[in-house]
Amino acid sequence: MSENYFKKYPSKDGFYKEYGGAFIPPVLEEEMKKINDAYYAISKSHNFISELRSIRKHYQGRPTPVYFCNRLSEKYGGRIYLKREDLNHTGAHKLNHCMGEALLAKYLGKKKLIAETGAGQHGVALATAAAYFGLECEIHMGEVDIAKEHPNVMRMKVLGATVVPVSHGLKTLKEAVDSAFQSYLKDPITTIYCIGSVVGPHPFPMMVRDFQRIVGIEAREQFFDMTGELPDSIVACVGGGSNAMGLFSGFMDDEECKLYGIEPGGRSMDNGEHAATMTLGKPGVIHGFKCYMLQDEKGEPAPVYSVASGLDYPGVGPEHSMLKDMKKVTYDVIDDKAAIDAFFELSRLEGIIPALESAHAVAYAIKLAQKEPQTSILVNLSGRGDKDMDFVVEKYGEDYF
Coiled-coil stretches, from where to where (predicted)? Predict the structure, then answer.
């Protein structure tokens, strides 16, 4: 695949084979073309690249380390490593693309950043980027997620962002995206919609992937430097899929590395209480792009659920959809209980409290290690669990304390 892969996908129209594209109202077509043209021109310029590299090093604290989980590996087998994106400034991988998107907005002369958020990490990261560049920031968040992720809501407000509660539908991530898009449509000239994952109309899936590629580039070099070889398995959670695409991008050429994208099995795979888009979905159009999607009998996005607010989305990145069809990535599920178990196991064995989203990937790594005790596994620890503490203690504390 190599660099030719990244030049080939997406196509100039924003397609990853049959997925992606830009199914948007005419009022947005011209604005999306401006963003696309500007991204291609600006992102290749010396000034843009130099400023972004400086931000990553001196502000974000990159590179983040790769860490070997000695006690976790001793208990479950295998050799489990973590790419520590939880140590990235603001506590997750999200700042990688938020600083890039905000920098692009500055070059475009935009005044305001608008976005959705589920678990709140994208909202915090974008509010941070807005503060850094002196831009306004408006974050749309479902009322259910506001209640679950109270610490992140407070962080956004402290950083100066306006948090807009979304009270329709299931009041979670899908509805937050709907609300943010509606707000963006009111003034696409002075604002820019900074999508929080590798989803949405072209060019956003490509832009977010490109900004997140730093995770895979660093991880590949770091792992080889530590061990003299590449990992047997690469594991990342998948909601929209930005952290996974970031890590996978570093290993696209390495046939010996198996790639695993882990979706939320939720409470039950049988009665719809999950968000296993790649496992049970079928192609459809959502939020301006085509991808695998969980659908109801009318073909509309189906209700979804996950204990992890950042994973409860009925669609998925178009590039992930293509990689599934190409059989380049294996997509599998982890349910709520296994994710919560992994949350506590990593905390108590390694002193690292993971985000509930990342705990799904940790749980799958444990499962792989038990099945293949000689294997090496690299997990993208995409975020830290500070944001989840109140929710986990209140809901699950009696079972684990």
Answer: none
